[in-house]
Amino acid sequence: MIRMPLAKLNGIDLNYDVTGNGPLVVLVMGTGSPGRVWRTHQVPTLVKQGYRVVTFDNRGIAPSSECAGGMMLDDLVADTAALVEHLGGGPARVVGTSMGARVTQELALARPDLVSHAVMMATFGKTTTFRAQMSKGEKDLHDAGIELPASYRAAMTAMQNFSPKTLADDAAIGDWLAVLEYSGGKKTAGMRAQIGLEMRSGTDRLAAYRAIRSKSLVIGFADDRMIPVQQCRDVAAAIPGARYVEIADTGHFGYLERPDAVNATLVEFLAS
Fold first, then answer.
1. Would you call 224 a catalytic residue per the annotation?
2. Which long-range contacts (CB under 8 A, 24 or more apart) does 126-135 make?
């Protein structure tokens, strides 16, 4: 792995890592998580396939600029575009999950010259009442200065993000609970700024996605409580020619829960 220094891109500091050689793959992480999460499973597989793989910390996640004063989804899209250009320009293969998937689909729409293949995992194109309430609750919890006990936070995180199959497997979920309990959970000001990101152009983007021309793959996680698969299907239906794949026995953290299935799907699509 080649560790890169902070780069001044789109007016902020952006921390990123490059691994491997070959066609460029950019991995975009979801809310509150650093780019290094991809390195457990996805980076090794993609490097083995002959790609140059880039992970980075979105604005809001140190050591990238925290931008605690606030941000819009458009800002993260522009950051990702600037990173692709900094690394030699596109077209690149761009893969995102959750918030990162929204960044990916908006980047494919705004900058088709930079995106050859777009993969969106656990995504949506229209805000729902439930998601709006979840975002409000997370912001209110942070603003009230409440820090949940690590044991309770770990249990709630697991319940929200893993499938019933994993939750019922005592050995598997025991390992995950240990990781979640000791991985830290204090929300920083930058993470707070990421919660409830909005588009300047509105909360229903499905009609706009009809203009996406990049090769597109939408992956839904069958047991995702945070972003139910119907919302993923709606995005796939909106993008002309998009492929939709649904992976069984996976929750919102599907890329960690069933990495073999996710990676096999990625490898096949990115080679197309």
1. yes
2. 126/203, 126/204, 126/205, 126/206, 126/231, 126/234, 127/203, 127/204, 128/231, 131/227, 132/196, 134/226, 135/195, 135/196
Q: Which two tokens stand for residue 187?
A: 């929300």
Going by their DSSP bridges, the two strands 12-14 and 7-9 should be labelled as: antiparallel
3-state secondary structure of 42: helix
For the question of residue 98 being annotated catalytic, the response is yes
Q: Is 98 left (phi over 0), alpha (psi -120 to 50) or beta?
A: left
- Say what the pLDDT of residue 2 is: 44
Which one from 33, 65, 98, 216 is the annotated catalytic residue? 98
Q: Helices 73-86 and 99-110: crossing angle, nearest 10°?
A: 70
Alpha carbon 43 to its chain's center: 14
- The pTM is what? 0.95
**Catalytic one of 17, 117, 163, 252:** 252
Distance CA 115, CA 263 (A): 20
- Which one of the listed residues 17, 57, 75, 224 is annotated catalytic? 224
Judge contact between 71 and 60, C-beta under 8 A. Answer: yes
The residue count of the chain comes to 272
pLDDT per residue over 134-185, tens digit each? 999 999 988 998 888 999 999 999 999 999 999 999 999 999 999 999 886 6
Span 180-198, pLDDT tens digits:
998 866 778 899 999 878 8
Q: Which pair of structure tokens corresponds to residue 98? A: 């959750």
